[in-house]
Design goal:
single chain; 62 residues; mainly beta; two-stranded antiparallel ribbon; 4 strands; 10% helix; elongated
Length: 62
């Protein structure tokens, strides 16, 4: 569900470590933005990470 449509970046899993070194599982979600973009001449809505938006891998439809 939380996956970039361009690069495929998804949820990462790791450990949250407290000051007393108690470790619990947690997840990091990518910063996804709903974007209208033009694909094959038609506007399409997709979830794109901010790195792909910033690097210009996807062009917004106006």
């Amino acid at each position: 569900m939380a996956r970039c449509a361009i690069c495929g970046k998804g949820v990462r899993v790791g450990m949250q470590v407290s000051h007393s070194h108690i470790r619990t599982k947690r997840t990091w979600s990518p910063n996804l933005q709903p974007v209208r973009t033009v694909i094959n001449g038609r506007p399409v809505r997709m979830q794109v990470c901010t790195r792909c938006l910033k690097s210009g891998k996807v062009k917004r439809a106006l």
